[in-house]
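Ticket opened by: R.M.
Priority: normal
Category: complex prediction / small molecule

The reporter submitted a protein together with nicotinamide-adenine-dinucleotide and asked that the result be attached to this ticket for the collaborator who will pick it up next week. Submitted input follows.
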Amino acid sequence: MTATIDHFVGGERVAASGNRFGDVFDPASGAVRARVPLASESEVDTAVAAARAAFPDWAATAPPARARILFRYQMQLRDHIDELARIVSSEHGKTLDDARGSVTRGIEVVEFACGIPQLLKGEHNEGVASGIDSYSFRQPLGVCVGITPFNFPAMVPMWMFPVAIACGNTFVLKPSERDPSAAVRIAELAVEAGLPAGVLNVLHGDREAVDGLIAHPEVDAVSFVGSTPIAERVYRAASQAGKRVQALGGAKNHLVVMPDADLDQTVEALMGSAYGSAGERCMAVSVAVAVGDDVADALVERLSPRVRDLHIGGFEDPQAEMGPLVTGAHRNRVRGYVDAGVEEGAELVVDGRGVGPTTAGNGGNGGTDSDGGFFLGGCLFDRVQPQMSIYTDEIFGPVLSLVRAKSYEEALTLVNDHEYGNGAAIFTRDGDTARDFTTRAKIGMIGVNVPIPVPSAFHSFGGWKRSLFGDHYMHGPEGVRFYTRLKTITQRWPSGVREQADFSIPTHR
Ligand code: NAD
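Result attached by the on-call engineer:
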């Protein structure tokens, strides 16, 4: 019988009480590996009630005491990194190395959150007026909710809750229903590290659970990461319900290749950033903009054999460079975009349609997908035009589009005119061009000769334009600001001097 995944509420695994379930697949075989409960309204209430009940004591716990638990938690996570990576890979399909790397990036946010006593230090002004001192500090919001996407089932939740709970909030995480198991294990490890019951809860579900959480009167803030249409919808609904909200959306990340770029380095960068994790990363490079035909021709010549030779396999295959896509439905959607690109007139230089895992003797991107599993080979398009759907839309698969630009200005205009503004990179040896790009690109995170410029945990992560709705980025200083609100005290102590009533606005006399 297929196992059913539990929620994690009030410090323990809790069996589903509703009657709606979804399938969780093994992407490498296509088989159903588990059932995930899709929470009902009453399960939403139970999870929020657990978080609300835990809030007063947790908010009153001194920040150094909270930090001590987080120190133990990050050790606990490190001790279980292989187990967590296997859980991620088995439900998502990405390679074990990639999964391990993503868990590590999540743990770095826990490390950042260990500094919470320092991060929460306020400001103090002595004597802003005669006998009056003024000081500001930040306090937690209450119950915070996190709604996360399938592509980083451990890391993206860890962008949110470590900072939220370090600040004194309690948290309900609604992970993706496509790969939900990692969230339960990371919450369980937090309790094993000493986090009090109810501070971190995991509730599985789909739109019904999300709608219930963002409208819930006991929820104070919502962090969302996912596709742009849902991010926008969640942002509007949560704002209307009076919540503080940050909603990170989709991306179409461009990598501009200047004529003076180191081509060997650029090709390596494009391979990893376009095809790593089968392109299912919000910071994946999905558009290469070659400045000049010479650069474009050289890139196509060097990339084509590399894409054809990609070693494709399930996460148990230690040689795999790229795994399957997360579900059959998503694989078919990506394949549909490749069909559309051909129909729209782009040149499909490497066709990964119908390609399955690499087996001995078939030389890389050359198997067939007839054995089940949600595989798709690497695809490379040349001569892509800005009006084509493979350029305008986020495909979220192993498909790289090459656009030919005549000049740097034309390349920059492409970057700036695109509706998404998550990440972009420029590859060049020229400091002047690089500096111009970092100044003028309308993009949240920029790499200079770095293809996936994901900020470290102590900086903040977020895009511009339709890649982010709200005012705050995630983790780093922006995360602390999002999960706290400012309070400012103006105080005077009786000093024997009696003042008369003053009917005009107080000034700094
Ligand atoms: P998705 O938008 O389908 O789902 C994200 C979350 O929203 C899930 O928890 C899901 O259950 C929930 N959801 C789905 N439909 C909903 C609805 N109608 N109403 C309310 N909630 C709903 O995204 P996904 O396919 O899981 O993830 C891939 C997307 O996430 C890509 O667009 C990718 O770019 C984006 N992403 C963005 C970032 C970023 O930092 N900007 C990071 C990772 C992923």
